[in-house]
Amino acid sequence: MRPPQLRGLRVRLVVAFGLVAVLTAAATGTLTFREARTGILQQSQDAVIKQLRARVDRLAPALAFPPSESELRRFAVDVAAGEQSPARRVLAVYRDLSVTSVPGDPFEELTPALREAVRSRPFTAFQRVRDGGRASLVVGMPVTFAYPAEQGPHTSGVQVFLTVPLANEQSYVDALVTAVERATVPALALAVLLALLAARGVLRPVRALRHATRSIAEGRLDTRLTVDGSDELADLSRTFNETAAALETSVAELHDMEARARRFAADVSHELRTPLAAMSVITDVLDEGAARLDSETATAVQLISTETVKLTRLVDDLMEIARFDAGAAVLHLDEIDLAESVRRTLASRAWSQEVDARLPEPDVLRGRVDPRRLDVIVANLVGNALRHGARPVELRLSAERTGQETQAVIEVWDSGPGIPDTVLPHVFERFYKSDTARTRTEGSGLGLAITAENVHVHGGTIRAANHAAGGALFTVALPLRRHGDRSAGGPR
Fold it and tell me: EC number(s) in its UniProt entry (predicted)?
């Protein structure tokens, strides 16, 4: 996997500009080189052909026909002597007779194709050949006699071939290639510089947009971008500002609605406590005299008493949730024996015989926690297991060391059918019911939500799962603090 920085916009812009510069320089250099090379060779070729034609036209009239070998050799030598470079060589051919200006010269540059072209047509022909890394120009022409224009030229049967080395022209071409190569480096450097400048101009608003987006994600909804210009990036910045403003307005409205709902729930709960207290007193009196009432009246009294207890519990839970929502939940830490606290919780609710409690020995597991909130955590988890699971219910308390911190781990496991996979992600949500057809339950629907809040206010974690052997398993981890440790809890 490539490092993230190699996929950045800056690198891609620089690479793109570099590639464009290299391709442009290569294409321009190739075209320039081809045109310059063609011009150099064409100029040299035209000069050679012109000089050869003039020399042959001047010497041909003195040539006897049919020429002897010595006369033909002298003709070849005279034609070669007129050329400027001593490296130029001449081959003269008359029927089966071939002589060269240099004795013993094999004249290997002459190809059969060029020989046939000169033999079959009364025109000058040429060909560039390369032998052993050396380039040469070979020019061939027939020696003709001039006749009246209507009859055209008449060939004498003598053909002259001239080979000219192109060393000077090749040096010019090599120098041109070197110049093109040298020009590519500055072009590439200029392209990289332009790419860096362009990347800087593009990345500045992109980087600002990234920081602003991160700021929005962190909750600072008043973040805005400075809009400069009228290009696409400026339009993007304006769109971001409009979106952020709309989001800020929507969130503010939601917060206001949520705050009003919380105040309403808290106010209603608070107002209900007084009449509920009176109703509880009345139901207690009615319960005491229920034995003297007829069966129908006793049943009605029992129903009223039960529903009053449920309503009281619901109001208490709503008040507790309201305190968490208002950030008024405060930890009152005390160093206690956690095992003894759990035993008292079970005993006070007559659950000691219904729950298999596996607790450490006295004073083995101590820590600074809020005793009241620990009681709520244990009571809600065990009560939930007894109501919705099946016996036996097991409670295990143990210590677990994580790094430098020791945690108290509370596990409550029932033997029921477990929690459906679709329900597991929602078990700690308020008023969540796995069966929408059930409108009434024994609890308030807030027990596990309150449990989670009490765990979190301690700085702990809570999770729900299905045990491998069946049944639901709730696991709570609370950090243990010794006296003098700084508490992570407090008002929320």
Answer: 2.7.13.3
